[in-house]
Amino acid sequence: PVLPTPVIGMLGLLDDASQCLGSGFKNNGDVVYLLGSAGGHGLGGSLYLKVIHDLISGPVDAPDFKHEIALNDLLLKLIKQKLIHSAHDISEGGLATCLAECCLTDTEKLIGVTVDFSREGNQAAHLFGEYPGRVVVSAALQDSLEVKRHCESFNIPFMKIGIVGGNSFVWNDVLNI
Question: Which of these, 58, 82, 117, 150, could form a disulfide with 161 (CB 3.0-4.6 Å)?
């Protein structure tokens, strides 16, 4: 959505199809984590500015490539050790859109999430900011300490933000869909 945006196509080979992890929430009771920084400006060039304010403007947060590499290495390790059930990058539309997509990915069943996460400052940036280097993952409660240990070893911020379950997307007193 940032204009003009170059389009890059990529193709890869997955040797073991059981290592393929989807973005949708799978299990009631799973814990939802935000991996990566919780903050940044994030509204520059965002879908939020385009749709709500009909603007294509503002500074875009620069990616930290060392962080991006560490985050991807961490995700590969968590997937290979079967410690996470889903993973979805926070990109177009920000954190609120990412969480909604996680609820709607499985076309056979609707699964909700209750989010208990807030931040000081601009509420729109918190909900819809598109700053780079963040991923939402879900994991079984019993794997929380192991996930945290791996995040710390890769120096990736780790924050519990919610619980999977029900059939609604509830975020504090901000959203109830």
Answer: 117
Instruction: Calculate the CA 126 to chain-centre distance.
Output: 13
Other CB atoms within 10 Å distance of the CB of residue 54: 7
pLDDT per residue as tens digits for the range 141-159: 999 999 999 999 999 999 9
d(CA 119, CA 126): 7
> Do 161 and 36 meet the contact criterion of CB atoms below 8 Å apart?
no
Question: What is the DSSP pairing of strand 169-171 with strand 31-35?
Answer: unpaired
Which residues are CB-contacts of 52 (< 8 A; sequence separation ≥ 6)? 124
Q: What is the pTM of this model?
A: 0.89
Q: How far apart are CA 85 and CA 110, in angstroms?
A: 16
Q: Strand pairing of 169-171 and 175-176? A: antiparallel
3-state class of 19 per DSSP? helix
Q: Which of 108, 97, 121 is nearest to 169 (CA)?
A: 97
Question: Which stretches of the chain are DSSP H helices?
Answer: 47-53, 65-80, 94-104, 123-128, 144-153
